[in-house]
Task: structure prediction
Amino acid sequence: MELAQQYGTPLYVMSEDEIRRVCRSYAGSFQEFYGGHGRPIYASKAFCCKEICRIVASEGLDIEVVSGGELYTALEAGVPGENIHFQGNNKTLQELQFALDSNVGDIVVDNLSELHALDRLAGTSNKTAKISLRIKPGIDAHTHEFIRTGQIDSKFGLDLASGEAFAAAKESRDLQNVKLIGLHCHIGSQIMEKEPFIHAAEVMLELYCQVTEEVGQELEHINLGGGFGIHYTEKDDFIPYNAYMEAVSQKLHALCKEKGIRLPKIFIEPGRSVVGEAGITLYTVGNIKKIPQVRNYVSIDGGMFENPRYALYQSDYTCLIANKANQPANYVATIAGKCCESGDLIQEHTNIQSPEEGDILAVLSTGAYNYSMASNYNRNLRPACVMVHKGESRVIIKGETYQDLLRNDV
Ligand code: LLP
Result:
């Protein structure tokens, strides 16, 4: 309530302690299960701004970026290029050149055309690009029960089943200006079970061995991607991150022992779980429209421009009236944004405390993929973000102004 009063609404609020707690728990798991042989990488697409990059990097995480803009942000936050992993299924030539110029430590190559373009650009720049290959391991964690298929319908990466991935490894060995150092996969997001991760690790280790033996290429690491689930509502039930880490590490250690090889460095690349539960969004309740036998629209001063996730994916959230948090939540509301669009909703038929105009509505677990997916739709202003730490708050992203909207208009 104090923050809403001090900074106004809508307002993104992030907890530094919570972000640091998750970073430390991942770093601790790497010590415990891999003896520090590998590390977590923060997938900055979940929430990319300078201060979050600084906090996460100060906890020893590398940063994954997926565009020139994210790369620029991480560099401006002081993250060395060496600690940056550059993903993306269609990086532009300018982005590849930017990565080379910034000495990015790991460019994750998605396809053969990119491999060749990067080799050419690196040659012209007199550099050797350190690369990983993005692999489609054939595991779909987003079906009701996850499945292993020969070939997933995905725009990302090199196909394993058809031999495309293996061929790309061979080809990169023969190129002058790239050095293959790793293999990468990412099997999905908001995953609640450990089995898909274990299978992915198994498949990737198999390819790692094949590349080492048959291509004769020494690799340094396997990156198993992100995807750990978080609590949006109390229905979300998943095992602690430590348990994923332990299960995958056990599998990898056992396989390496069986094959008589040394375990490669292992990376993981979580985004949502690093920042998701650290964030809440605060709104002021506006008008309330009760449509008998239909629903109760509770309007807020935000909407799909600052949180498009319900409009896009019908994502669940927990909502509450902050100034009545102790009262029973027995009012069924549809939380409506202020955009000129009927689908601009934050949640439908959700239980909150009895609302009145002027109340402060809080939506929980909005730290990931909210700010990062925000827009200026209807020329609404992207809200400010404040970071809370030990009872103090500070602005880490200023709220936009009308002048900001016109900055590039001619
Ligand atoms: N690595 C790669 C290559 C990825 O594509 C992603 C997410 C991650 C890591 C991080 O995954 P996480 O730990 O955050 O699940 N906008 C969607 C989520 C898209 C995720 C895309 N890739 C949402 O709001 O739910």
In short: The pocket of LLP is lined by residues 43, 46, 64, 87, 186, 189, 225-228, 269-273, 309, 369 (CB under 6 Å).
